[in-house]
Amino acid sequence: MSMVQPVLDRLPQQYRAALQQHSELLKFAIVGAVTWFVDTGTVYSLKLTVLQDKPLTARFLGVLLATIVSYILNREWSFNTRGGRQRHHEAALFFTVSALAIVVTLLPQAVALYVFGLRVPHVSAPTQAVSNFLSGQIVGVLLAMGFRFWALRRFVFPDELEPALTTGRAA
């Protein structure tokens, strides 16, 4: 019995059924929220200290750290009933999908900075900071999250595992 089951048992049947039907997506979204905070904390820690003039480098490092955390949490929790690949092959595919997702994450911020010129000295530092947050932390992360969910289910964790195969993994 999972830790979530007592909470689910208290919900009205229609909500319980919807949550159970979409539990994988819900878990993925929770992992996404956790890794968003990892990413955001890393990005702003770096941008406010050692990488003040390098917002894309800070973004890359934040996404990289969040991707490592994401693999662990998604493997052991979000997609713990899926698999179909040997662990090293699965990890290689996960990091390949995530590398593509890094590009998806960076694109909106790069467009804002270099196509629309929303960077110092063309705009004020606060304007660049708001633009970086909206284009990188909101638009980029949401686009990459949608891409990752689709690609992880399709390529990395393609098969539903038999219940006996998931007993050794975290629920």
From TrEMBL:
Q: Do the record's keywords include Transmembrane?
A: yes
Where does the protein end up?
A: Membrane
Sorted keywords for this record are: Membrane, Transmembrane, Transmembrane helix
- Kindly give the membrane topology term recorded for this protein: Multi-pass membrane protein
Which chain regions cross the lipid bilayer? Answer: 25-44, 56-73, 93-117, 129-151
Domain GtrA/DPMS transmembrane span(s) in chain numbering: 27-157
Q: Which Pfam families match?
A: GtrA_DPMS_TM
Q: Is the Transmembrane helix keyword given for this protein? A: yes
**One GO biological process term:** polysaccharide biosynthetic process
Name one cellular component (GO) term.
Answer: plasma membrane
**Highest taxon, organism lineage:** Bacteria
**Membership in a protein family:** Belongs to the GtrA family.
Q: What is this protein called?
A: GtrA family protein
What is the taxonomic lineage of the source species?
A: Bacteria, Bacillati, Actinomycetota, Actinomycetes, Mycobacteriales
